[in-house]
Amino acid sequence: MAKPFIPKKRVLSLRPEARRTAEVSIQSRETIDAFVKKTRHPFGEPRTLEQSEVEDVERTLRTLEKDLLERERAVQELEVRLSEKERGLWEAEALLEARRKVFEAQCRQLARRQESSRDAAPVSKEERAALREFQIQLEQREQSLAQSRALLKEREDYVERAENLLFDKTMEQQERETELEVLADALEARRAALEAREEGASTRRSASSGTESLDQ
């Protein structure tokens, strides 16, 4: 009887993905912290950004948005791979269950033969050895499936953590974009006020020059 294929033990390390996630998170946090510092005085009071600073922050936010989209695509691709692996595990479990039923049927048949009349053919050592080997193979396959399920659960937990982190970063970006819009409005109001003051000063200078001309 041909031996069923027993997959080798595989370790699907999460450390590369976790390390990349941590690196991106640190970079995003540093970028956000830098943005916050630009909008605050040394003692924490808010300040108005200059136009060049607003444009720089806008570019930074666009970069963060691009990073978030790339990470979202990576999470979606990982979910697809996990679904495929989970489907493979289901198929393997179904096959294992079918082989177990065959094994149990053979065991029952063997027991009936042992309890039958004296004229029945005795159970050979080869048959016993074959059943014992079949049982060992089933136990090995069960162990392999248990390891695969544990690894799959670990990957699913990682995906869930990545999705939660992605959601948090998205919310942070939205908050920063809102704050940026408020700062841009304040900058525009400040510019309008400065233009009004300059226009008023220019008008007063013109009036003063006209008065001096009349006096002369």
For the biggest sheet, the summary is: none
Distance between the termini: 124 Å
CATH fold topology: Helix Hairpins
Low-confidence stretches: 1-19
3D architecture notes:
It is built from 3 helices and no strands. The protein has one domain (15-208): Helix Hairpins (Orthogonal Bundle), CATH 1.10.287. 83% of the residues lie in helices and 0% in strands. It has helices spanning 15-38, 51-115, 125-215. By secondary structure, it is mostly helical. The model is unreliable at 1-19 (pLDDT under 50). The N and C termini lie far apart (124 Å). The radius of gyration is 37 Å and the shape is rod-shaped. 3% of the residues are buried.
Task: Describe the secondary structure blueprint for this structure.
Layout: H1 15-38, H2 51-115, H3 125-215
Helix pairs in contact: 1-2, 1-3, 2-3
